Amino acid sequence: MFDDQSRVVPAPERGRRGLARAARRESATIRVALCVAVLACLVAACGQRAGSTGGGAQTGSSAATALATNLKPLPGHEADAPKLTRKTTVRIQTTAGELVVDVFPEAAPNAAKRFVELVSAGFYDDTPISRVVPGFVAQFGVNWREPHNAWKEKNFDDDPSYYALERGTLAFAKAGANSNSTQVFINYAQNNRLADPRYNFTVFGEIVSGMDVVDKFLRVGDPRYGLDQDRLWRDGGAYLESLAEKPTMIQHATVVDAAR
């Protein structure tokens, strides 16, 4: 209690016991409050650590950093095009010079997987650039030799098309839905019309070095369709030997940096 000078003065005995009990209750309350405060601090610290990459807990590709790449989403797919966080780099040596290709498994998983499989198997070694149409595409991917020719019938399903078919991008050639197998084309110019759902050609990679080499690929065979694919698949060695003008050849392709 307080006197008129606002000083604390001794209380009667019974009042002192009451004050003691009140003090004990207040002390217990303070201890509980301190425990709650400590727990709150610990939770806040954990939350800060979990969200240190920005915006709370993140896992998988959402927390990964997007790669620097020239690939652009197709018009209308800016919001749903997958973020590209992984790549495999492939080096292709041709008789016209060397190409370096970055392959993005998140852009087109089925296509990226098949291309890397074929490169790793040596499928593209000693095969021709069979079709060159300036301003449109350069195409390759026929190997008539055993055991590589078995890949011709191993079709894989289409991927959704999210990225623009700009100059220097790669996509699998096909004869219809889900008929992709081994043949790939490089775009000489923007060919976004090929991403129309009626065709659904899908970009899986890009030339990061050597597009000037692609511009030097020799145009042989039919001006629109290039070399006779049936003859290439049947007996490519004899067919190429019979040509007066030889195509540019892929000498060797190799994976130099696999996706992580």
What does this structure look like?
The protein is α+β, with helices and mostly antiparallel strands and 260 residues long. It folds into two domains: 1-58; 88-257, Cyclophilin (Beta Barrel). The chain has four helices and eight strands, in the order αββαβββββααβ. Strands 1-2-7-5-6-4-3-8 form an eight-stranded antiparallel beta barrel. The N and C termini lie far apart (74 Å). The relative contact order is 0.16.
Largest β sheet strand count, sense and barrel closure: 8 strands, antiparallel, barrel
- Number of discrete domains: 2
- The largest beta-sheet arranges its strands as 1-2-7-5-6-4-3-8
Label the CATH architecture of the largest domain.
Beta Barrel
What's the multimeric state? single chain
Beta strand %? 15-25%
CATH class of the largest domain: Mainly Beta
Flag low-confidence runs: 1-23, 32-36, 38-62
CATH superfamily of the largest domain: Cyclophilin-like
N-to-C series of helices and strands: HEEHEEEEEHHE
